[in-house]
Task: structure prediction
Amino acid sequence: MTSTTFDTTLFDQRTPPEQNNVVCIPQALLPPDEREAGDDVPTYDELEKVSPLPHLPDRLFPRGLPFPPRMEFGFPISDEQIVALHKLEAPDDDRPIFLEDGTLSSRTLGFATKRLRREVGHRIDFRYVTAKGLNFIVSCCDNYQYHRRDRRPTDDSTEKMRNYLGLDPNAHPHWYVDAADYFWGKGYFD
Result:
């Protein structure tokens, strides 16, 4: 039997109100006018130092202008795990798994996504993030999709992801900085 209930302790991912102030937001994720560094956009080195967040401060959920950086909610996954998923989904695919620059091909990511979605019974995506020592996470949703219940993982899909990825049974998804959309902006194409 599949659980369709939501793990409310897992998905109550907002920072408690008494802690919801600027101190909770890492310096690299502050709006440009509040950054001590003085630059409008944080450097990749600054972003790499932002640890995955168990809870996301309210200011990092979109509520109007300026729009916050995109934060992905999910579990870490290694390149090796992605390659293994690709091989399970497309065992006869003999095209290159990696591009010349050493990154995973979009074909590899596509096959791996298809396989993991079917295994866990939930829509997921692989997202490139800025966390040090990590390329991708299995993202269930982001801070722009958080309000959509269909993107929130169920207890059952969360457990399946943990098991499939070989994670500790008590592991919970965290918030990670999306490597492609990590700055504050005034519109979609900033």
